[in-house]
């Protein structure tokens, strides 16, 4: 039988003053602001309980204010020192479900008292262990004592009715040990204490930030049969704390300030190196390696350590999309009327943020959520269609909302009702006052759109020359034609979205609106009619070429271009004439070179024939004929070489003239 150490500790605490939640402010970046208030008497302490993961934010933001004068003695909180660090100074083992014998064995040499009914045995601990089971006894725990009478006795701990440490200091340490183990089991809760030394009662106010779920917003946009549209906004608030919020002042803040977690709660330790004096260590023998060759000057090798920084994605931008409705909204006869609620909020700008403050107290029970109305008023909105392409046949039913409420509209889902009928749903991102948003909420099956592309060839618009370079600017035009068929017997307004493409500019048209990625064009669609709308764009192309490397034919295309001024044409024509003359001279040089090569090969043939005939008798006449022919070819070969030399001199002169003309070109 084992005797297990069970950490039961009775902690006596004075009653702490309560600070009740009076105000809650919820933000959109994962934190909430809490304001508590209560009375603190002379010498009393107020206790605030938190989850361990909340402590970093609390320690970063906690402020305390004493109303009516006075002061507080200080703030203290439950430490987060690791269990091993806390127990390091105590002479007890660390572990779960330790037997008593293991504990006592760690305390060898300590005085101990055991009671066995009416008998008492006192002495000094020699050792303690688990004794193996025998036929007479099962597994037992045994402690060996050097008794006060001088005997060494092995005593059965299982039979002892009481065990007591005779050392008062050790007894106190054992209580601390058990209290530390108990605290380690309640690691989810941490307390902050506010102490007072005032002689009278004071009202104190504590404020802090803590992690909280973001509040959410949802809207209803109502297009009545007659009159202005109505926008209704609801806030969804979650109380995930472990206490109620009774009649608190609640505010909701739209915006995203910078916020982060700073590790303030966990103790921070710095590793320090162990340093010893050299004389504290004994000298060791050194073995020197044998030399193998003569060496030169020694070299130093340096190391370079580079660091790479990781970047945050950007959070993705909210999508403005809607669930497609595959049936006509008019066929859904769900009747709808605006909510009959009382909106009691005040909105105000708070720097870059916007705050909705509820003017009436709000109650939210712990573990529950609340849906609170924060907006219900007329809004400037118009119905239209929007077509974004991307292979779609039908445009979408949409609404253009201008925020004339004077308040910031936090982003969220939007349900649209048209003439008391459900029409669709959309998402809207955060919209500042006086800003405008376009949302789409259904597919309009009564409108069909097809597209066709057309493009023109490159047309040279401008030619310039400078420092031997010819720069030509040309353009190509592309036209996208939208053919729109409105099958409904009512007129419509359509917004066509066309992508903004780098390098392209619109020709002869201005969009009604432009986003970073798209143009928007408004097209009025008559009832039961077809409409065509064309978007024409132009892309400018600039090419630069060295005039020296241009062939006469390529340069001639620029000379014949109608956009070229007469003076520039004359300069290029002069260069072109010289290039043509140079090209002709190059051809003549090449032709002369071919003739020289052919004549040289023919001479080789004649010399081989002469060599063969000289070894045969009776061939004198043939030898003389070959000799005359060889002499004539030598004369012609000399003339061809003179001609080639003149051609090459002329070629070099033309190249110099062309280079000088090109260097002077500028228009």
Keywords for this entry:
667 residues; alpha+beta; 38% strand; flat; disordered N terminus
Description of the molecule:
With 667 residues, this protein is of the alpha+beta class. Among the domains are: 213-257 and 318-445, no CATH class; 449-549, no CATH class; 552-664. 21% of the residues lie in helices and 38% in strands. The chain is built from 7 helices and 32 strands. Strands 1, 2, 4, 12, 15, 16, 17 and 18 form an 8-stranded mixed β-sheet that branches. A 6-stranded mixed β-sheet has the order 24-21-20-28-31-30, with no helix packed on it. A 5-stranded antiparallel β-sheet has the order 9-8-7-6-10. Strand 1 and strand 2 (31-40) form a beta hairpin. The longest helix has 48 residues, at 566-613. The protein is flat. Mean pLDDT is 80; it is low at 1-15 and 282-334.
